[in-house]
Amino acid sequence: MTTGGGPILTFSTEDFARALADHDYTFKTGNTVRGKVIGHGSEGAMVEIGGKSDAFLPLKEASLERIENLEEVLPLGEEFEFLIIRDQDMEGRVVLSLRRLMVQRVWERLIDKEANKDIMDVTVTGTNKGGVIVDVEGLRGFVPRSHLVQSQDLDAHVGNTLSVGFLEVNQDDNKLVLSERIAARSQAMSTLEVGQLVTGTVASLKPYGAFVSFEGVTGLLHINQISKNYVDSLQNLLRVGQDIKAIIVNIEEQRGRISLSTKVLEKYPGEVLKDFDTVIADAENRLQNVGQLLAETDL
Questions:
Q1: Cβ atoms 178, 145 nearer than 8 A
Q2: Is residue 131 situated within a structural domain?
Q3: Residue 192: is it exposed, middle or buried by C-beta count within 10 angstroms (0-12/13-18/19+)?
Q4: What is the pLDDT of residue 184?
Q5: I want to staple 213 with a disulfide (CB 3.0 to 4.6 A). Which of 50, 85, 96, 203 is the partner?
Q6: Whole-model pTM?
Q7: Residue 225 has pLDDT above 70, yes or no
Q8: Looking at residue 69, which CATH number applies to its domain?
């Protein structure tokens, strides 16, 4: 067919389909494809992904861990999802990675776990002067010495499993920092309840009260919760390292805060100030009145 003396070129549906097949836009670096393992070699595996040429999966990109037997990890005929890490060459072949897709999905799971304040178990694989190195689903993580429950002998942790919470999850910087102390605190707090009598040690004194360590956590005994009477000198009543008993009067689990009280143990206002040791020694016998006092007292 011609117009004005020139031919009109026609482009059939079949021509269009062939053109798309010759230039498949889905096979680009960063895309995810599904493919079937069709062959193994010393350097890696061949994968059928529907292109004009089969794709290649290098051995080092086949797993998060070192592979001893590629055929066991990637059996012939099995289908997997892969990440394209190199565009098509002149023959239309792309290079794939299973490892990088696994890493990407591990990061996604860890970001979710951090957001949910989850606790997870990790294995200690090594140490450095700042803490311990851990395996986190195939990724390398770090627990600072200050966030270990036992931080004196780091080598003793190697090979052990730690329960940890999250300090920092940053995929862009490949930074994964964890805390055993956060996990211990979270697990301990889940067993605590308002009205519970706890035995602990005075960890520090502040102008507004005393921090008390017990069962792997720390609670605040505010100066207003020590006695029903005014406390003019905290230092004259308490000292760091002193054993103490107190009642849990409030728990803010999301903020990690525990409020303690000794004034609810008093039989009369000022008893703690007058005879502290007697009140603490008799704490268990006074528990029966604590529930009613907590309900009646504005804490």
A1: no
A2: yes
A3: middle
A4: 86
A5: 203
A6: 0.66
A7: yes
A8: 2.40.50.140
Q: Are residues 120 and 89 in the same domain?
A: no
- Of the pLDDT bands very low, low, confident and very high (cuts 50, 70, 90), residue 18 is low
**What number is the average pLDDT over the span 248-259?**
86
Look at residue 167 and give its three-state secondary structure: strand
The one-character DSSP state at 292 is: H
Is 102 part of any domain?
no
- Reported as a pLDDT band with limits 50, 70 and 90, residue 2 is very low
For residue 81, what are its two tokens? 């999802």
**Which residues constitute the domain of residue 252?**
191-294
Helix (H, G, I), strand (E, B) or coil at 59: helix
CA geometry: angle at 120 spanning 82 and 106, to 5°?
A: 15
Helices of type H across the chain: 13-22, 70-73, 99-115, 180-189, 271-274, 276-281, 287-296
The region that residue 216 occupies, defined by phi over 0 for left and psi between -120 and 50 for alpha, beta otherwise, is: left
14 within some domain: no
Give the C-alpha separation, 252 to 43, whole Å: 55
- φ, ψ (nearest 5 deg) of residue 259: -105, 135
Q: Are residues 201 and 157 in the same domain?
A: no
